[in-house]
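Weekly puzzle thread! Below is a chain. First person to post its structure in token form gets bragging rights.
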Amino acid sequence: MKKITISISILIILAIIIVVLEYNKSKAEQTIAKQTFKLQAIPVTVTTAEIKDLNSELSLIGTIMAGSDVNIVAEAGGRIVRLHAKPGDYKSAGSIIAEIDSELRRASLQNAQAGYDKAKSDLQRMETMYKDGVANAMQMDQARYGFQAAEAQLLMAKRQVRDTRVTSPISGIINAKMVDQGATVGINAIIANIVDISTLKVKVNVSEKDAFTLKSGDKVIVSTDVYPGITFQGSVMSIAPKADEAHTYPVEISMRNSKTHPLKAGMFGRVSFTTIEKTQALIIPRKALMGSIKEPKVFVVNNNRAELRPVQTGSDSGTMLEIISGINPGDLIVSNGQNNLRSGTKVTIINKQRK
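Winning reply:
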């Protein structure tokens, strides 16, 4: 009997606890509902989309590259008996970088030279006999063909010997060597890499609109973080006729390397195009942009509600961004508070910024 009484007491206590928890939950939901009702309108800051002049200067980050970057390739296979280059060495065009074992090729050259000398003597003797009427035309042709074949063999043998000397195709600095002395290489094996940084190239990607504004020969200014306050002069060398996957056009800048402030390949450089004419465009603050660069979007306030719209962006000018399509002049663009919004959310404008 005592055990039954204890069990009933426990059940009553549990029932009371459940009732209390349900009551508290109900009160909490009512409180949240009241707060939600009060905050139905999300406070935001907006900016009016307007047509204004864009800055005439376009500035982009690009990669500085060597004027020439070439792999030195072996044109003959064999064992490397001498290596005349190490990273950091300066080599002029035509300098010998490596020598490949040429003993057998030189023997072939001697044999070809002997065959050539014999064929030449035979031809000269046959020409004399032909003039004297001792030899006929067929014999004369055979002697001439034999000489031409021997001449071709000699030319091939000389080329094979010459190919055992691997030379630099350009003047520059050895960037890396891929083999060591004593190694055996095959034909077309890469012996070393050489770069010429006396002239440099800077590659940047520009938008479709800017690609049609630029032209070959336009002057640009290049600056780097390595030399603050120092600028370098360059010019547009080429503009790609075809866009890449991001719908931008690769542009290549040519510039002379500086002796007082030398640059290295692989550095980042800021390219400023000063020849782009000032144009009018529909602009909004860059900070108003939502989504990724490939799929940019903005919130537009319409009838006190936020509407998420996809847009197409163009050039940028500092903190401002050109919008090509997706919004119209006079639209109210949410520039602050958009992270709390969804399309259709009711909003309250607490501040209207001016550009």
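Puzzle host: Confirmed. Bonus trivia for everyone else. DSSP finds four helices and 21 strands in the chain.
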